[in-house]
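Hi team,

Filling in the usual template for the complex we talked about on Friday. All components are listed, including any nucleic acid strands or ligand strings, so the model treats them as one assembly.

SUBMITTER: L.P.
PURPOSE: interface mapping
COMPONENTS: four
RESIDUES: 466
SEQUENCES:
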Amino acid sequence: MPTAALPVWSEIRGDLLRMIHTGAWKPGDQIPNEVELASTYGCTRSTVSRALRDLAEAGFLVRRRKSGTRVAANPTRRAPLEVPIIGDAIKAAGHAYRFELVERKLKTAPVNVTQALGMPAGIDLLHVQVVHRGGNLPLQFEDRWLNPLAATGISQADLATIAVDRWLLQFAPLGNATIAIMAEAAGEDIADALDLRTGDPVLVVERTSFRLSKPLSFLRLVHRPGHRITTAI
Amino acid sequence: MPTAALPVWSEIRGDLLRMIHTGAWKPGDQIPNEVELASTYGCTRSTVSRALRDLAEAGFLVRRRKSGTRVAANPTRRAPLEVPIIGDAIKAAGHAYRFELVERKLKTAPVNVTQALGMPAGIDLLHVQVVHRGGNLPLQFEDRWLNPLAATGISQADLATIAVDRWLLQFAPLGNATIAIMAEAAGEDIADALDLRTGDPVLVVERTSFRLSKPLSFLRLVHRPGHRITTAI
DNA sequence: TAGTGGTCTAGACCACAAA
DNA sequence: TTGTGGTCTAGACCACTAG
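RESULT (copied from the run log):
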C-alpha cells in the first residue's frame, strides 16, 4: 500500500523536520549543505533548496551564505492569524448575519486615531459605527475612522446595504496594516450596543490600515464576551 | 541612481502586486498564464512561477491547473502571530524579568484539559503554575498541564530555576499547537496572582500543544490588563 | 579567498481539471 | 481531450561572508 505520492521536496522537508523534532538535530546545530543533501537524497540541489527554503521561511532553519544552514536557536513559531470579512465569518459559523449602521458622519478624529494613522491632529475623518449580529445576537461592534481622501468613493457608497469592510475589500484590496489585540471592560456605549453589562470583559481588535502607503482606516472591533480568536501552528 | 538590485522574481512579484493594489486587476480577474508572463518579462517560466507561487502563498492569488491564475476573490490576509519565550519578551520590553513557581504537582486534570489534549478523563497530569514578573509587576499568570509521558525528563527539571516554557523549547522544539485568544473577567485566583481586582478584564491565551502527534501540554496564559498582542500584515 | 546559499536558464514530464 | 500549473533536472553564474 503506497502512501500518497508527495513531491520529492516535500518528502525531504518532512524528513529534515523529523530530524529536528526528534532531537537528532538540536537548536543551533549545523546541518549538511545543499550539495551533500542533494547527493544523500539523489536529487538536484534545486530540489533540496526548495525544501530548505520552505523550512527557513517557516522559522525552523536559519540560512547564511558561506556559514551554512543551522537549526534555529530561538525558534519563534508564527501562527497565521486570519482577517476575514465579518459577515462571512458569522455565516460560516452557521448564524444568520445582519448588521446595523449606527453612525456615518464626518467628524474630528480623536488624537489616538490620528496618531495611529500618522495624520495631523484635528483632521476630519469619516466615522462609521456598525453592529454586526449573528441570529439577532449582537456579536461585534465596529468603530471605524476612514480617510475619505484615501478611500475615494466612500461618500457614494450605501453603507447601510454593503458592510464597510466588504466595501473596503472591493475598493482597496489587501493593503498593509498593524493589528493589536487586547482585553477591555465594556464602557456604557459598548454595553449598550452589544447588550451587555458595563464592565463586562470584551475582546478588542484594533487595526490600522494603509493603502499604497497612505493612511486609510483605523478600526476598533469589539467582540462579545465568549468570543475566541483561534489559530493553529 | 540605480535602485537596489532585487532578484528578477521579486521585481515581477512587486509588479504584479501593483496591478492588484491599483485595481488594474480586480478580485476574481484572471491574469495571464505563466508562459505569457515569461515572454512579457523576458525570463523563463520558472522565474515567473516563483513570483506567482509567492503571491499565492501570501493569499493574493488563487492558482488552479488548467483554469489558470486569478486574483483572490475573498482574500484572507494572514498576520504572523509570534509565540515567544515569556522571559525573553519581558526582557525585550526593557523590564527586569523574574518568575515564581507557584505550584508543581501531579494532579487529576480537569475535563476541559483532557478534552483539549484528547486524553482520557480522570488522568493525572503535571500541574504547573508560574507568575511572570516584569520589574516586580506581575505581568502574566501561567497555568499549565503537562503530560509527563510526552515530556520525559520534566520530573528531573528544576522548574524554580528554569522557566517551564524555556525548558519545553529545549526539550521539544517546535511541535504542533492550537491557539485561542479570548477576554475574561479575572477570578479570585487570578486577581490574587496578578494583584488585580476580581472582575478586571484579562487577556487569555490558551495553547494546546503536541509533540510528535502526542499530547504534550495545555497552557493558559493570563495577561495583566493593558497587555496588547501586536502584529503587522 | 573560498565555501555557501541565492538565483536563473532551458529544457522536460507529469497531474489536474475544465471543456 | 487539452491547457494549465507543479515539479524536477543539469547545469551556470553570482552575492555574500567567514576565515
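MY TAKE: Chain B is about 25% helix and 35% strand. The longest strand of chain B covers residues 97-108.

Thanks, L.
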